[in-house]
């Protein structure tokens, strides 16, 4: 199954740049872009960092695509 996310929407709601999110989660803007565009799936540790940054539970940020 594919992991889906709403990171881009959450980032835009917060008026944050890719660099802002990267800095806050100890990674770089390119990695955040890859997560947002389904080019890469974050580790559990990174999912928890993103959850803390956005103030949302992991299961609100990430889900499994159904129907596969």
Strand order of the largest sheet: 1-2
Order of helices and strands: EHHHHHE
Q: Extract low-pLDDT stretches.
A: none
- The tally of helices reads 5
Query: How would you sum up the major sheet?
Result: 2 strands, antiparallel
CA gyration radius, whole angstroms = 11 Å
Shape: globular
What's the mean pLDDT score? 96
**SS-based structural class?**
mainly alpha
First-last Cα distance: 6 Å
Account of the 3D structure:
The chain is mainly α and 68 residues long. The chain is 54% helix and 9% strand. It contains five helices and two strands; from the N terminus they run E-H-H-H-H-H-E. It has helices spanning 7-13, 18-24, 29-36, 44-54, 58-61, and strands spanning 3-5, 62-64. Strands 1-2 form a two-stranded antiparallel sheet. Helix 2 (18-24) crosses helix 3. The longest helix is centred in the last third of the chain and has 11 residues, at 44-54.
Question: What are the key terms here?
Answer:
single chain; 68 residues; mainly alpha; two-stranded antiparallel ribbon; 5 helices; 2 strands; 9% strand
How is this fold's topology laid out?
Layout: E1 3-5, H1 7-13, H2 18-24, H3 29-36, H4 44-54, H5 58-61, E2 62-64
Antiparallel strand pairs: 1-2
Helix pairs in contact: 2-3
Summarize the structure.
The protein is mainly alpha-helical and 68 residues long.
């Amino acid at each position: 199954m594919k992991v889906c996310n709403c990171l881009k929407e959450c980032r835009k709601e917060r008026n944050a740049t890719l660099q802002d999110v990267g800095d806050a989660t100890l990674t770089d803007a390119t990695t955040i872009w890859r997560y947002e565009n389904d080019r890469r799936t974050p580790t559990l540790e990174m999912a928890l960092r993103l959850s803390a940054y956005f103030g949302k539970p992991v299961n609100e940020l990430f889900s499994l695509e159904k129907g596969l």
